[in-house]
Design goal:
Helix content: 40-55%
Strand content: 5-15%
Number of domains: 2
Largest sheet: 8 strands, parallel, barrel
CATH topology of the largest domain: TIM Barrel
Radius of gyration: 21 Å
Number of helices: 14
């Protein structure tokens, strides 16, 4: 029986919600110093939720001031400056003396306001299991909702277990920790692999990037590309972000300086002609109730529709202009 109303792509093209790819803003912006955290929140208010902000309770905390720093992060997350609810926090690693206190403070004071917690430096999938259990227990203890969790893959053990980590139902994203990963090789990987273009050329780093992206996509999670430290070189940053998106399969990327946010968004956004093609095809497919159609002398069906739907979703997440008919049909909640 043909339905009376048009069927939305996410209902027609995916068997259930678990088979649809996870969606997150394309930039994960890291900051740990109070002044930069406040500036980042102001920039997010200006640009909109095209990027997340991760407030850093690990490397951002001064030694001996971990508790006070976690309180500051909780205060910022619960403030009016968190306009879009897209602020997360990185805690100390599982097993660190500050881990339990970080989690208790952030969940207890800001659990309902945080978009996620980032778990750094696990040595194995078992470490991730233990950290998740501790966080979920804190959520239950404080009556807070279970927080989405993300994992930084930056150790040999985490890379070995990356598919197990990606399979964890509480994990929504995997990030590559380039600097710690290179350092973990004890000098066997040169420092040039932490720079450009070396981070896209050294075989061990390339292998790690590809393994993380493959594991994330295998389980519908979001792969988040590592930092580019040359933050004042816009041309090289744009090139790196474009390679991460087009060659390495990443759908999200770290920013460590506000000047990096716009170039990364631009690099991850689809081009205007890609958006126009995707919109035209998907509207034609929807009119045919998602049966195969001939489009520009090519035959398309649900397999290719899924690809073109990701183009429109990326366009929406990066603030691109969509054809009016496609916006009305596919993103009505964003109108007005």
């Amino acid at each position: 029986m043909i339905p009376d109303a048009p069927v939305h792509p996410r209902d027609a093209l995916f068997e259930d919600s678990t088979t649809a790819p996870r969606l997150l803003p394309v930039v994960d912006h890291y900051c740990g110093v109070e002044a930069r955290m406040r500036k980042s929140l102001a920039l997010q208010a200006e640009l909109g939720p095209v990027f997340d902000i991760t407030l850093d309770a690990e490397d951002g905390a001064p030694v001996g001031g971990e508790a006070e720093h976690a309180l500051l992060i909780a205060e910022l997350a619960t403030s009016a400056a968190n306009r879009f609810g897209r602020v997360g926090a990185r805690v100390h690693p599982w097993g660190h003396a500050a881990f339990d206190a970080d989690v208790d403070t952030l969940v207890g004071r800001a659990g309902a306001h945080l978009a996620y917690l980032m778990l750094p430096k696990p040595e194995s999938a078992d470490d991730v299991d233990r950290a998740v259990a501790a966080i979920d227990a804190a959520c239950a203890r404080h009556g807070a909702p279970k927080l989405p969790l993300q994992v930084l893959i930056e150790t040999h053990g985490a890379l070995r277990d990356v598919f197990r980590i990606a399979a964890h139902p509480r994990i929504e994203s995997l990030s590559f920790g380039l600097m710690d990963f290179v350092s973990a090789h004890g000098g066997a990987i040169p420092k040039t692999a932490m720079e450009l273009p070396g981070q896209f050329e050294h075989p061990l780093v390339v292998r790690a990037k590809l393994e993380i992206a493959a594991a994330a996509h295998a389980f519908g999670k979001v792969p988040s590309h590592c930092v580019v430290t040359e933050f004042r070189d816009r041309e090289r940053l744009t090139s790196a972000a474009t390679r991460a998106a087009r060659e390495f399969g990443y759908t999200r990327m770290w920013s460590i300086h506000p000047d990096q946010i716009r170039p990364i968004v631009e690099a991850f956004a689809p081009a205007a002609d890609e958006i126009a093609e995707a919109a035209e095809l998907l509207l034609a497919a929807q009119r045919q109730q998602w049966a195969p159609v001939s489009f520009r002398d090519r035959l398309h069906d649900r397999a290719s529709y899924r690809y073109f739907w990701t183009v429109l979703e990326r366009a929406e997440r990066t603030g691109r202009a969509l054809p009016a008919e496609a916006r009305r049909a596919f993103f009505p909640a964003a109108i007005g």
